[in-house]
Amino acid sequence: MSDDQRGSIELRLPSQLRFLGVVDAVVQSFSSEFGLAQDDINNLSTATIEAAANAMEHANKFDASKSVLLRLQGQGAAIDVTIEDEGQGFDPRPYERELTAEDLLKLRGRGIFIMRSFMDEVRFARTSRGSMRVHLRKVGRPSQDDSGRKDAARGN
Amino acid sequence: MTIRQREVGGVVVLDIDGKIVGGVDHDLFQEKLQSLLTAGKPNFLVNLENVKWVNSTGLGVLIAGFRTVQTGGGRLKLVHVSERIQSLLHITRLTTRFELFEREDEAIASFA
User: Fold this and answer.
1) Min Cα separation B60/chain A (Å)
2) pLDDT tens-digit readout, A109-150
3) Distance from CA of B58 to the nearest CA of A (A)
4) How many angstroms separate the CA atoms of B98 and A130, rounded?
């Protein structure tokens, strides 16, 4: 794999929800460099925003002295994202389930379901410091624009 | 998030601008709906044309608004919902609760 097919970026975010817009901007911009279709990019961004918001609120408790570390790594058509808090993490297990009819109009509790629905892979791991590292993976389908360019290159 | 309000055919149209991520957005949306319900205006069309994305907490803001209006005897519907937000509403099955419209005039007519 050539160097222009891989790359990574790291970001340290304050634990404030207003910076979720930065997460969206960075994921959108970074992922577009790897040829993902726009709906895959949107889904990856939505899942990353969920994980970052969890880290800010439930793990870091909006503590101004604690950050959320965001790392994006692209390799070919796959994007791997890790989101790590500097607090005590959180327990995802109560939310690892399908939504029921009773859940439909609840105000909270959909974040992990959304991550699992939109991603190819979601993993939660405790770090040695007791924080939580969330790993998201999205394997992109070729965008229609890309297919068109490849067809043109082949002379189709 | 900011909210501007206007009235079309007896329906209050709330033009939302920016991100809906919960916290103060919840309070702002609730206060707006409550004051209008108290003023005798029960029907709301929420225009999401200038909302790029919402997260799960933002969905909670919209759901809380839906429930408040329903409890107050009114209706709350959505218009100009981006594909990205529709995708979120679809996987969380909220499309079974919220009525979505592509055009404002059709949405307004649906309240008749």
Assistant:
1) 4
2) 899 999 999 999 999 999 999 999 999 999 987 655 554 444
3) 9
4) 40
Tokens of A5: 């097919």
The pLDDT value recorded for residue B49 is 97
Give chain B positions within 8 Å (CB) of A21.
19
Of A58, A52, A65, A44, the C-alpha closest to A18 is A52
Q: Which residue of B has its CA nearest to A98?
A: B92
Which residues lie across from A69 on neighbouring strands? A12, A84
Q: Is the dihedral of CA A45, A47, A50, A51 positive or negative?
A: negative
Tokens coding B81: 């919902």
What's the start-to-end Cα distance of chain A, in Å? 26
Is B83 exposed, middle or buried, given 0-12, 13-18 or 19+ CB atoms closer than 10 A?
exposed
Write down the pLDDT at residue A153: 41
Those residues whose C-beta lies under 8 Å from the C-beta of residue B56, and which sit 6 or more positions away, are A50, A53, A108, A109, A110, A111, A114, B92
Note the ipTM here: 0.88
pLDDT tens-digit readout, B92-111? 999 999 999 999 999 999 99
